[in-house]
Design goal:
The protein is an alpha/beta fold and about 425 residues long. The protein has 2 domains: about 140 residues, Aspartate Aminotransferase, domain 1, CATH 3.90.1150.10; about 190 residues, Type I PLP-dependent aspartate aminotransferase-like (Major domain) (Aspartate Aminotransferase, domain 2), CATH 3.40.640.10. The chain contains 15 helices and 17 strands. The strands form 5 sheets. A 7-stranded mixed β-sheet has the order 4-10-9-8-7-5-6, sandwiched between helices. It has a 4-stranded antiparallel β-sheet with strand order 13-14-17-16, with helices on one face. Strands 1-2 form a two-stranded antiparallel ribbon. A hairpin with an 8-residue loop joins β13 and β14. α3 packs antiparallel against α11. The structure holds pyridoxal-5'-phosphate. The site of pyridoxal-5'-phosphate (PLP) has 13 residues, from α5.
């Protein structure tokens, strides 16, 4: 299957791991690809590609409907993926709703949990570094309920102002939305401490784990949140996958978000009995093959070990920032201690898009733009940044190629 699965957990053979990712062998504009855009979406190992392919070749059928053999196999594969994810996150499978990703997961909390509970005089507290996916659903809820949005600010280095956050936890606040890791700054928020502070004040917590799961072991019960949302495609899984973990008492109390097949026990015209969670929140045919692929991604990551992934990325990221600091006129945006392997940057006199376009011509893929975080761009007073984001499958040679490309582009733009 894949090289790393066969490798011992101690002393991972990173060259073999890299060879598991076929796309990374590609050329772009005649240059070897340097893929530094994993915060946008991660690349997929063969184990994931083969799991999706194998599902369609051998097991394809709909889930929870057909009694025939393929139907049972498809259901087993889909529920098996849920069980693998639950094991990875140290939660119970029955408390894990599979969704198309974080955006769906956060909207599910917004519409099923928050909408019926909030009203005028209530507040939703968000941090300045949230992705639009953890802002806009709350604005929609606020508009319909009369609740207001409060913002917890940052310190200049891009870490959360924890004193300010605590002071903002006033009695009107009913819900706090906080990202575990910033997709722009790489800041790792102390979500355990934050959730403890919120819980003491009776505030429900929604953690956006999109950028945490690709980089570190996450133990959801240890965080102590009420809801944890994540997306599969940033953690080696297919697009259109992910989930929401929620405390059982919330799931039991939440009405369905979408209605349809798969989420009911009995339908009559005079009333419908819904299925128990998590299926109550999975109306319609789900992304079966995608989640089978996500299950394979979890197996793949577990075989390497998330601690090994985190250590490898720390090393690569330290090298990356060391090289970047040598480039004249380059400014790193976000310098919180203990960042994940994500670095936003600007180069004096150059627009972020021009920089990214010229880097692309050198074979280097970085993202430029607002990164779906307009309020954070306003905080730094810039319209856009460039962002280099790493994964464990990158190499030190790529960091050097990136630095050389950056110097070349810098000289062109100077
Ligand atoms: N939250 C964060 C921090 C993200 O980085 C992203 C994706 O970029 C999302 C939410 C949205 O994820 P998705 O588009 O997979 O739903």
């Amino acid at each position: 299957m894949n090289a790393s699965a066969a490798a011992p957990r101690e002393g991972v053979d990173w060259a073999r791991v890299r060879a598991d990712f076929p796309l990374l062998a590609r050329m772009v504009h005649g240059k070897p690809l340097v893929y530094f855009d994993s915060a946008n979406t991660g690349q997929k190992p063969l184990a994931v590609i083969e799991a999706v392919d194998g599902f369609y070749r051998r097991h394809n059928a709909n889930v929870s409907r057909a009694v025939h053999a393929l139907g049972a196999e498809a259901t087993e594969a889909y529920e098996g993926a849920r069980a693998k994810l639950a094991g990875h996150l140290d939660v119970r499978a029955e408390d894990l709703v599979l969704t198309s990703g974080t955006t769906f997961a956060l909207n599910l909390v917004a519409y099923s949990w928050a909408l019926p509970r909030l009203g005028p005089g209530d507040a939703i507290l968000l941090t300045r570094m949230e992705h639009h996916a953890n802002i806009v659903p709350w604005q929609l809820v606020a508009a319909r309920t009369g609740a207001t949005i409060k913002v917890a600010e940052l310190l200049p280095d891009g870490s959360l102002d924890l004193d300010g956050l605590q002071a903002a936890m006033t009695p009107d606040v009913k819900l706090l939305g906080v990202t575990h890791v910033s997709n722009v700054l790489g800041t790792v928020n102390p979500v355990r401490e934050i959730c403890r502070m919120a819980r003491k004040r009776g505030i429900a917590t929604v953690v956006d784990g999109s950028q945490a799961l690709p980089h570190m072991a996450v133990d959801i019960p240890a965080i102590g949140c009420d809801f944890y949302a994540f997306t599969g495609h940033k953690m080696c899984g297919p697009t259109g996958t992910g989930g929401l973990w929620a405390r059982r008492e919330h799931l039991q109390a939440m009405p369905p978000f979408l209605g349809g097949g798969e989420m009911i026990r009995e339908v009559r015209f005079d009333g419908t009995v819904y299925a128990d969670p998590p299926h109550r929140f999975e109306a319609g045919t789900p992304n079966i093959a995608g989640h089978v692929g996500l299950g394979a991604a979890v197996d793949y990551l577990d075989a390497i070990g998330m601690d090994a992934v985190a250590a490898r990325e720390r090393e690569l990221h330290a090298h990356l920032e060391e090289e970047m600091r040598k480039v004249d006129g380059l400014r790193i945006v976000g310098e919180a201690p203990g960042k994940a392997a994500v670095t936003s940057f600007l180069v004096e006199g150059a627009h972020a898009h021009d920089l990214a376009t010229l880097l692309d011509l050198e074979g280097v893929a970085v993202r430029s733009g607002h990164h779906c975080a307009h309020p954070l761009m306003h905080f730094y007073g810039v319209p856009a940044t460039c962002r280099a984001s790493l994964a464990f499958y990158n190499t030190h040679a790529e960091v050097e190629a990136f630095a050389a490309a950056l110097r070349k582009v810098r000289n062109l733009l100077a």
